[in-house]
């Protein structure tokens, strides 16, 4: 297909001009980044409608205010002003887990008469979520959103944000539909009818070979979207493991410790010292600014170019950049030890990945559980609340999920996105970056740790000198303890050998 390059001028942002967009999951990690991208790079976009539920005593409007208070929006607020941004966003109170999305008839009419693009990002990303809750949000919630989309009179595109890790029986994933693990309609009906405790008791049998409820329910939801493609203009985005920003608008920004960031912080604090993992294996990671840029480019191609044949997009990176699990940890330990130390490290960063479970379990016993027990006892004796044992329980639970992905390998074909790179011009390549050119892995991880220090751990730069001094102290403590332990072992081994030798002689 021939595409006019428009003399090198941006065509993507103008496509959004005066188009009204509905976003679910706007208070989440990816959702925030998508809202910020549209407001900053597509200022002439029509109204952005955000489906938001009340949570923890906060109204949908208050939650939107919390979103704009995030450091992610500082750049665009400086460019356009907070009042302008808020006026461009309309909050719709609702809940994708509830029938009819729990929206009022007036709000439904507002949506169906105005919306032309929908991004359905809302999902529970907890791998250990109960099956009933995961089905209600990830699968039934998608069905409800599809039902709403079918009523939209001006709909140009319904974009469903899936995951590249939801058809795990395939080792090479192509940009095509795959059969679901079960009939999504039957699963929804069964889960609606059964009590949560009953569903919990059947979960393992229902999941079968699927490792967790997240992958299972996202695969079911995909099937619903594919089923609807004859009735509505729908596309599926399959991002891989979405991680902190590469550069826009803040290098390394994140608002959570999921994925590699949690590993970096845990290793940097000296808490994680052993993992059962194929150290040479790799995951597929995608900085969140790349993910939302790709979503914008894909939308432009689908809506403006009317390229409806390309309707499943793999938003992935491992075909170009492969970073092993060991590479992540070793880089993180080096950065924290030598450049950007974290405050209050419990031990000097160290440890290693284990290729067998028994090695990991043994190491975890000596280097995770025993220190946790001792330190918590000391904290209790000094009048503080014990915390480390609970932290290691959470880490161990996280490892149960992580181990499946770390010890298996998947690759992803992304021919459609590679095609998109050939039809965007130079200005668009900069404004909506969807290639790995210029990405420096070491610099990226430094930015991730620095941003995690600021935004997650709330550790300001003025504490770095003290953190460096503490790190040097912990280096000596680590060396002295290892010397004493290994020296003691050698002493007792030597003593035992001497006794055996002496007994054999006499």
Automatic annotation (TrEMBL):
Pfam family, one: Sterile
InterPro entries named in the record: FAR (IPR026055), FAR_C (IPR033640), FAR_NAD-bd (IPR013120), NAD(P)-bd_dom_sf (IPR036291)
Keyword Lipid metabolism: yes
Gene Ontology process terms (BP): long-chain fatty-acyl-CoA metabolic process
Membrane topology, from the record: Multi-pass membrane protein
Gene Ontology molecular function terms on file: alcohol-forming long-chain fatty acyl-CoA reductase activity; alcohol-forming very long-chain fatty acyl-CoA reductase activity
Domain of life: Eukaryota
Keyword Magnesium in record: no
Primary localization class, coarse: membrane
Family per similarity comment: Belongs to the fatty acyl-CoA reductase family.
Name of the protein in its database record: Fatty acyl-CoA reductase
